[in-house]
Amino acid sequence: MKKLVYFLYNKYFQFYFKIKFHKQINTRDKEIYIFDIDNTVANTWPSFLQEYKTLEDRLSSLAVFYNMRNYILNIKYSGSKVFFLTARPYSTYNLTFKWLNDMGLIETKKFLFLVSKPYDKVKMLKQVKNKKIFFYDDMTYNHEQGEIKYYKNEIKQLKKIQNIEYFDVKFINKIIGGYNE
Fold first, then answer.
1. What is the pLDDT of residues 71-81, one digit of tens each?
2. Which of 16, 60, 106, 170 sits a CA distance of 20 to 30 A from 41?
3. Handedness of CA 89, 90, 93, 95 (dihedral sign)
4. Distance between CA atoms of 72 and 92, rounded to whole angstroms?
């Protein structure tokens, strides 16, 4: 029974964020900026090396990459729309919003979207037409094990999407000062 409830819970939120994403993205804006959070805006991987009572405690404690924060604020101040699309458990939605709000990056939940895995980001982005998307995502994992791995299939798919300019881990490292060097 627990598996069924969990499955239905996930399906509900997948559908909810897919609909919400398309509603918010399909505005008159010709260009939009979309940022991942973990290891792109937030210095996430070191938190895996520490002990926390809960996932919420760990996520609440994350430090922001200040240079990336300033980069995003400059985009926002220029009048462009900035969205956040990240792979996190749906149960962390409110906490993720609060963290972004506390960092001064977001004022309303309509600019935040969660998915269950990195490939879901690619699927959502593929469906956006007639709009230039600037997408920032390190697409990495496994830092805490001492060997950085890449979501190679997702990166390959992103690079094939014509209306997306993808900013990868190398670009992100230039802005933040190289967290994985």
1. 999 999 999 99
2. 16
3. negative
4. 22
Find the DSSP H helices in the chain.
Answer: 2-25, 55-60, 66-77, 93-102, 118-126, 152-160, 169-176
DSSP 65: -
Hey, is 181 helix, strand or coil?
Answer: coil
Phi, psi for residue 83 in degrees, rounded to 5: -120, 160
Domains of the chain from N-terminus onward = 2-176 (3.40.50.1000)
Rounded Cα–Cα distance for residues 97 and 100 (Å)? 5
* Dihedral sign from CA coordinates of 97, 90, 143, 157: negative
pTM comes to 0.89
pLDDT per residue over 117-170, tens digit each?
A: 999 999 999 988 888 999 999 999 998 888 889 999 999 999 999 999 999 999
Residues in the chain: 181
**What torsion do the CA atoms of 35, 141, 174, 68 make, to the nearest 10 degrees?**
40
